[in-house]
């Protein structure tokens, strides 16, 4: 698909609704690619490979294996590591972009490094960070990852929890499509959608699921039912 700006990037509305962020430890004893394959069968619309313990080589191998498991069905991103994204792309893997946080490489330089066709996601959790994202040139960032909605042990250094009400307050000044993240369960999905989220991002809700396909289907149904 070709976007209005001539790039090959899809509209974020198409891939943000049910966004899986992987955690290698939480997936165990399943492999991450096996978990991802099951979750995509259940309807996950985007996958981000996140492994804070992996070095560059191991993260590259994991990203390439996940991309093979996804086989082009949904976008595949990597957390933090622009170099690993570029290496996977150079090796021929079907990978689509990178998600960076406030302490990672600056988003404008990331866009310059990855080019116009890659997806670039950015974390933002305060009005100041929303304002800074709004000031970036159009097309720099595709979407914002907004959280933590709830406290979560998956990311011990997460910013102060917003709560669904805090998330809703931020949405009134959202400069870009926003995916909600942090401790999200099926009960949160409809309220977050009504608050203006373009999607929900989950780690433990799918990585620790007994039946990841069924859990993905349940989350996606909650998203569809939550349409106001
Ligand atoms: C979709 C999405 N949103 C937010 C984050 C958090 O990114 P970051 O702030 O860089 O923190 P780490 O994930 O690197 O610990 C994310 N990864 N994905
Ligand atoms: C990566 C990230 N960024 C903010 S909270 C979080 C972790 C979310 O994990 P979980 O869905 O298990 O609470
Ligand atoms: Mg990061």
TrEMBL record:
Gene3D superfamilies named among the record's database cross-references: Aldolase class I
Cofactor: Mg(2+)
CDD domains (UniProt xref): TMP_TenI
Residues annotated as binding 2-[(2R,5Z)-2-carboxy-4-methylthiazol-5(2H)-ylidene]ethyl phosphate: 152-154, 183, 203-204
InterPro entries for the chain: Aldolase_TIM, ThiamineP_synth_sf, ThiamineP_synth_TenI, TMP_synthase
Top-rank taxon: Bacteria
Membrane-traversing stretches: none
Binding locations of Mg(2+): 80, 104
Swiss-Prot/TrEMBL catalytic activity: 4-methyl-5-(2-phosphooxyethyl)-thiazole + 4-amino-2-methyl-5-(diphosphooxymethyl)pyrimidine + H(+) = thiamine phosphate + diphosphate; 2-(2-carboxy-4-methylthiazol-5-yl)ethyl phosphate + 4-amino-2-methyl-5-(diphosphooxymethyl)pyrimidine + 2 H(+) = thiamine phosphate + CO2 + diphosphate; 2-[(2R,5Z)-2-carboxy-4-methylthiazol-5(2H)-ylidene]ethyl phosphate + 4-amino-2-methyl-5-(diphosphooxymethyl)pyrimidine + 2 H(+) = thiamine phosphate + CO2 + diphosphate
Entry note: cofactor: Binds 1 Mg(2+) ion per subunit.
Gene Ontology cellular component annotations, sorted alphabetically: cytoplasm
GO molecular function annotations of the record: magnesium ion binding; thiamine-phosphate diphosphorylase activity
Cell cycle keyword on record: no
Pathway participation: Cofactor biosynthesis; thiamine diphosphate biosynthesis; thiamine phosphate from 4-amino-2-methyl-5-diphosphomethylpyrimidine and 4-methyl-5-(2-phosphoethyl)-thiazole: step 1/1
Enzyme class, first EC level, given as a word: transferase
Keyword Repeat: no
Any Gene Ontology biological process: thiamine biosynthetic process
Protein purpose: Condenses 4-methyl-5-(beta-hydroxyethyl)thiazole monophosphate (THZ-P) and 2-methyl-4-amino-5-hydroxymethyl pyrimidine pyrophosphate (HMP-PP) to form thiamine monophosphate (TMP).
PANTHER family in the record: THIAMINE-PHOSPHATE PYROPHOSPHORYLASE, THIAMINE-PHOSPHATE SYNTHASE
Protein family membership: Belongs to the thiamine-phosphate synthase family.
Protein's UniProt name: Thiamine-phosphate synthase
Gene expressing this chain: thiE
């Amino acid at each position: 698909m070709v976007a209005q700006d001539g790039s090959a990037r899809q509209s974020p509305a198409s891939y943000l609704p049910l966004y899986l962020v992987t955690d290698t430890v939480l997936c165990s004893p399943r492999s991450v690619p096996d978990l991802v394959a099951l979750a995509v069968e259940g309807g996950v619309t985007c996958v981000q490979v996140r492994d804070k313990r992996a070095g560059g080589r191991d993260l590259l191998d994991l990203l390439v294996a996940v991309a093979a498991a996804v086989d082009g069905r949904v976008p595949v991103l990597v957390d933090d590591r622009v170099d690993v994204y570029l290496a996977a792309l150079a090796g021929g893997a079907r990978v689509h972009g990178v998600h960076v946080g406030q302490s990672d490489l600056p988003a404008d330089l990331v866009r310059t490094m990855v080019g116009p066709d890659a997806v670039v996601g950015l974390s933002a959790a305060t009005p100041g960070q929303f304002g800074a994202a709004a000031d970036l040139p159009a097309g720099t960032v595709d979407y914002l990852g907004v959280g933590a909605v709830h406290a979560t042990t998956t990311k011990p250094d997460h910013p102060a929890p917003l709560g669904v009400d805090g998330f809703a307050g931020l949405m009134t000044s959202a400069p870009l499509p926003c995916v909600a993240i942090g401790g999200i369960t099926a009960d949160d999905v409809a309220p977050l959608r009504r608050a203006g989220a373009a999607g929900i991002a989950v780690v433990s809700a799918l990585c620790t699921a007994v039946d990841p396909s069924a859990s993905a289907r349940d989350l996606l149904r909650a998203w569809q039912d939550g349409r106001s």
